[in-house]
Amino acid sequence: MANVYETAASFYDALSGERFVYRAGREAGVTLLGLRRGDTVLDLGCGTGLNLALLVDAVGPSGTVIALDRSPAMLRMARNRVESNRWSTVRLFEADATTFAPAQVASELPTGERHVDAVFSSYAMSVFHDWHPAWDRMCELLRPGGRAGIVDMQLPTGIHRVFSPLARLAAAVGGADLDARPWTVIEREGVDVRSMSLSGGHIRAVAATIP
Ligand SMILES: C[S@@+](CC[C@H](N)C(=O)[O-])C[C@H]1O[C@@H](n2cnc3c(N)ncnc32)[C@H](O)[C@@H]1O
């Protein structure tokens, strides 16, 4: 299903429901992540880079954002965004999130560090064929006591279930598995867990410290 991102990368920002639905989730996720100035952060499955402004702003000029995606077309859009904003603190990395070598990603860090301070992923892990190997790699790259944040989607809950057909349509177009619920691993393994539900429960944003 990754090919949909190769063929539709140019239209992704316009067609992804960003303004009315999904932007609020990424904003909540980055806020819950609690980045500090100078932090290094990985954005896994970064797509066209819609998280980058928030992450670049949060880590400041002394921080670093590593944005990884396996789609060259999506990364081209991200690169355009980086260049037009002159973000010198962003490194783009083409790799499969479920098979990448954490040490190779760490070699992108300017400081010679082997770990990042935070890992983040929005609306991407539910698209991975299996998000568990990606989570293992995120943890390997994350320093002990670092922060992890996942924003993703499920069917709306409660009275908002009437919007389920729309959620199913969005998931089908993007190849997302609405039953994947990748944030649950943070709820299980993290401490100081913080979470938010948005859009009638359709979006979950969860962040925590990973011991
Ligand atoms: C729905 S988009 C989300 C993009 C971005 N995180 C956002 O919030 O807008 C899903 C992204 O996951 C990427 N992706 C899918 N499978 C992947 C994999 N196995 N490894 C890395 N990226 C993958 C796609 O190329 C696409 O850019």
TrEMBL record:
Keywords of the record: Methyltransferase, Transferase
One Gene Ontology MF term: methyltransferase activity
PANTHER family per record: TRANS-ACONITATE 2-METHYLTRANSFERASE, TRANS-ACONITATE 2-METHYLTRANSFERASE-RELATED
Gene3D superfamilies: Vaccinia Virus protein VP39
Protein name, UniProt field: Methyltransferase domain-containing protein
CDD domains (UniProt xref): AdoMet_MTases
Transferase found in the keyword field: yes
GO-annotated biological processes: methylation
Pfam family, one: Methyltransf_25
Domain Methyltransferase: 41-146
